[in-house]
Fold this protein.
Amino acid sequence: MVGLSFALTVALTPQKVIFDCDIADDIDDTYAMALLTRVPNIKILGVTTVFGDTAGRAKVAAKLLQSFDRGDIPIYPGRSSAVPHRPQFEWAKEFSAKSIKPEPAIDFMKREIERSPGQITIIAVGPLTNVSDLITKYPEVKTKIGKIVIMGGSFYVGYNNQAPASGEWNIYCDTKAAQTVFDSGVSVTAAGLDVTTMMQFDDSMQTKLTAYNTKGTSAIAELKQLWGAKDTPTLYDPVAVAYGTRFKFSTEEKVHLTVDEKGVTHITPGSPSVTILVKPQRKEFLEWYEAMFAPKGSAEYRLAIAKRQAN
């Protein structure tokens, strides 16, 4: 009975997550953040924005979260840099929300990690600037981070899903930060191009998602229209969110990684430092993703969440 009680307690304890993203560039951040709001039994401690106009990104994140009735989630802009705006920024240009906080992203991350040592998963789906800044400025938190799951890297294939590996955008945008994170000693798992570049969310899938006709799915459709009305999204970032919240559609390899100046991640001799994901289950993942937006009482949604693993 004691063992059963302990198992139930673990199962009912919400997983604590910090979501670090560069929303408003490629559309996959939007699909990833939307997915995160649909996963049951997680506590989203906050969203941090990275790369370029992080304050503008925070507005887009806040408006999207409000569309999914999650305006309670705080958002912390990270260190900004000069990067041109994309059309999605216009969607939230005049938007304001109390959920956007003035506290720097890495200070928020440090505070939450020290409050819950070993319990927090950082899901980082943009350049790794914020995560690198965190562990560089506050190295004492490295032993207190539960794990880091990133969308980043290219290990065996490139964007065309063929060998050889190529430079991947998130790594390329801050190669130094990526190497810092890979060498940090923190548990890092990378969902790279090997398990993401084939995840095209085609027209039929988009139509079915929009047909749910919620404020959230309508917001996704609006942002997708601004990103590229006739273009097909690739769900790079949602793969990392799925894995980070214990929905696994691939297998794992432990490797040692180095990053070159072109943003290419090389598997090199050395003690394994990073877990990479390989052998994706494309059809299963895409069907699961769409089902996660079905009404929460539906059989489709219940079957989707049943795929979540215990740890």
Remarks:
- Strands lie at 15-21, 42-49, 75-77, 120-124, 147-151, 188-191, 251-255, 257-259, 265-267, 274-278.
